[in-house]
Amino acid sequence: MTIPRRSLRAAGTLAAAAVAGLTGAVLSAGPAAAHTPTWAVTCSEVSLDLTAYNSNVTNQVTVTVDGKDLLPTETFGKEFHKKLELPEHDKELAVHLVVKAGDGDNFSRDETRTAPVCEDAGTPTPAPSEGTPSPTPSTEAPAASATPSEAPSTSAPPAASPSPSSPDLAETGSSSATPVIAGAAVAVLLAGSGIMWSLRKRRTPQH
């Protein structure tokens, strides 16, 4: 069986067109899948990780916070990595990222994310009390007096002389009855002596 040459040429042309179409599709899909703009926003910072971009063109990145530049426009090639510190804030912030790919607007990014308020930043500091604080009691022991107390006087106070109008003091050891007792004793002795003398005198004549 003989196949006409025209049929062979037509089949070859179709095959070549199919291969070219597949190759173009693969090439066009490659860069789209390669661009990876990864970024994250926390209460205190913004992290940028832009990878797999076309290094043969000029790419740009810009970050703004509430309309103010946090990262002025910078150019990069294949990759871009950076961490940006957010300003202190007591309310949520709108963080806007713009990435312009040099090989086509379909690879660019224009996204906005919200930065929350950090927990410690939103807690107000308690105001000090207006009242006068009570003084702290001192724990120190009272200092001893440098001057010693005067020693008590050793001299006894002079005896007070009795007042003329005061009553007579009680009689002590010697009293007015002492001479009477002494006289009675002498009389007893004398009487005893007389009795002894009389007895002796009576005994003498008997012998």
Description of the structure:
With about 210 residues, the protein is α+β, with helices and mostly antiparallel strands. The protein is about 30% helix and about 25% strand. It contains two helices and seven strands. It has helices spanning about 5-35, 180-205, and strands spanning about 35-40, 45-50, 60-65, 70-75, 80-85, 95-100, 110-115. The strands form two sheets. It has a four-stranded antiparallel β-sheet, with no helix packed on it. The chain has a three-stranded antiparallel β-sheet with strand order 1-2-5, with no helix packed on it. Strand 3 (about 60-65) and strand 4 form a beta hairpin. The longest helix has 30 residues, at about 5-35. It is rod-shaped. The N and C termini lie far apart (about 225 Å). Mean pLDDT is about 75; it is low at about 20-35.
